[in-house]
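Justification of resources, computational component.

The compute hours requested in this renewal are based largely on the per-chain cost of generating structure records like the one below. Each record pairs the submitted sequence with a full structure-token output. That output is archived, and it is also reused by downstream analysis tasks.
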Amino acid sequence: MPAQPSPIQSSPVQPASIRPAQSARPVTGGVIPPVCTPLTPDRELDLSSLERLCGFLLDGGVAGLFVGGSTGETAYLTDDRRARVLAAVVGIVAGQVPVVAGTIDLSTDRVLGHARTAARLGADALVATAPFYAPTHPAEIAVHFRSVREAVDLPLLAYDIPSAVHTKLPTDLVAELAADGVLAGLKDSSGDVDGFRAACAATARVPGFVAFTGSETHADLALLAGGAGIVPGLGNVDPHGYVRLYDAARRGDWAAATAEQERLRALFAMIGAGDPARMGRYSSAIGAFKSALVHRGVITSGTTSRPMIGLNDTERATVLGHLERAGLC
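The structure output for this chain reads:
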């Protein structure tokens, strides 16, 4: 079984209004972690910890960094803080790998503001969800992605995360926008493995299109289904493990890929460290990732954005236990 999607067979006809996007560092696949946003105990940006985190991820062999995703707490950050984090990461990376910028917001005009800022700050590609809060028809979602792509000349990846935006991107819409040159890729965090497989099949003949899974626990299956890479929140904690998984899949060593995936599945259980009687699952997950990074000596504080509830000493000890069992501490 090949480790990568089938070779390109043909090229779609693109509308005259859409040119192929230009990017200094193309996004072609691999492991691209959605970068955590380190905060000080008083919830200011911790740029020193961010620099260490980026260095840790680059040393792990990642193929790029995704700034402004769910794991980066982007929904909690002001526009100014989002821009500051992106500018810092672009400066730290200094062209070593692509920097993909999340432009996630409620409506097209708000996304366009983030997209223009990201282009100005040196991002290599953009990620956007469907609009949310107000109900949006698939035809309107198409207008949304086309508007962003036409306004900013950077590759645009669609972010399919129905748990957050309450809309599942239809496979036929993704395929249509890919064929028209609007979308350069997909970041699928839907949890729908069969749907991801269908999206890979529907876009397999589109030159340069890359489909990424956001799943920490089904990454091996997604790569087997034709995925180009992985965008795992847990990749902040163990980038080396996900790179080993990806490399094993690329060389067709599915036994090694599956073994690494099983280890990472066990490690991912850390997201349940927080007591569900006092906090939500998202608070628990982000708190666990940050606590793990503190235990590993990468960032200084596990502080999360308001109104998330932080882990207590017992819960942080649970995270440490997961790290120890995974051989990381």
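The two ends are 35 Å apart (CA to CA). The CA atoms of residues 137 and 311 lie 39 Å apart.
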